[in-house]
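Known limitations

Structure tokens in this collection are predictions and should be treated as such. Users comparing against experimental data should check residue numbering before alignment. To illustrate the layout, the record for ABC transporter substrate-binding protein is reproduced below. The input appears on top and the generated tokens appear beneath it.
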Amino acid sequence: MDRREFLGGAAALAGATALPGIARAQGAELSFFYPVAVGGPITKLIDAYATGFEKDNAGVKVKPIYAGTYQETIVKALTAHKSGTPPVLSVLLSTDMFTLIDEEAIVPFDDFIKTDEDRKWLAGFYPGFMENSQTGGKTWGIPFQRSTVVLYWNKELFKEAGLDPEKPPKDWAEQVEFAQKLTKRDASGNVTQWGIQIPSSGFPYWLFQGLTTQAGAILANSAGDKTDYANPAVIEALQYWVDLSQKYKVHPPGIVEWGTTPRDFFEKKVAMMWTTTGNLTNVRANAKFPFGVGVLPAGKKPGSPTGGGNFYLSKKATRAEQEAAFKFVRWITTPERAAQWSIDTGYVGVTPASYETEAMKTYVAGFPQAIVARDQLSSAVAELSTHENQRVTKALNDGLQAALTGTKTPQKAMEEAQAEAERILKPYR
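Generated tokens:
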């Protein structure tokens, strides 16, 4: 998901310079939007890609624009589109696809697929990531920094609690049982260590989709014009999340912050956390204890949503700019670069071929946790995405937070969220 921060400072500006890969007239200056990952030395990574690409494309000058969170960036991207000066290339959420199409802000990549090599490249991405990249028979986004939700656990705390440090909970019941053993209270009854945290700020719907998928529900149809928030399985999933804090008292009450959850994990304030695989490098660098990474515990079935960002091409750019940006997208998603990006950030390699590279094989041999998110793709579903995506998602987020803070029952919260989504989406059917 990885939506908290953006690159900043001179190093970031230098690093971002090559991203659209414009090989137009000498001295051409073009702009693009780029959101940063949760953790890791992203500016240095982008800088290295910039240097490598610029060696092959002399005279490229690109002006990066940093515009806040992913949510803020889509607003600014659309504003720039309406004013006539959008960036040529943007990395925006895969879930922004319908919004960008509705606003006629982007062009499909299919127009630039000309050779057998191009066709082979396009067919080479994981199908799970293409679910949020294609619609109506066209490819509107190219997967770049993509993720799933995974479970992280502190092996030392598992051992202290009498649990096998190598075995995470395999289902919802075990998740509660383990969390009860991992929750610690002082003499006054105050919690000093929580069993589990599932963040509920920013974009709670994404973490919630792990629970709804496991409960056997799909939140929206593939056409992006209908939601199913009031499905009994969705309500069951929300009740389970609420019960973790209100019934079992193994999860902090109220809203758990996305941004501080990894820090709570590092400081041993929580023993298990759900977060993006995009946090993997961050956790590896900052956890001063052995940790495990596993697929999310199953409900009726296993499952997680995919997440993260795609490349999009501006409709208002010139054909030459679009061609050059396409060239860069091809360049940065080669198996070797996709593998290195995954190794350096924790994002999932976007193609099976990236896992066949020597670099990735070596990395995974020494750090097997890196393969979990890829293996989870077999049970992953598309991240919630609809027309009017911001408003439809907000309806769900508001409902989730109302239930988690105890102001509404899960059933009432989801029925009201569904009614609001229905009102927003009705014109699109």
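For this record: The first strand starts at residue 29 and ends at 33. Confidence is low (pLDDT under 50) at residues 1-27. Please report discrepancies through the issue tracker.
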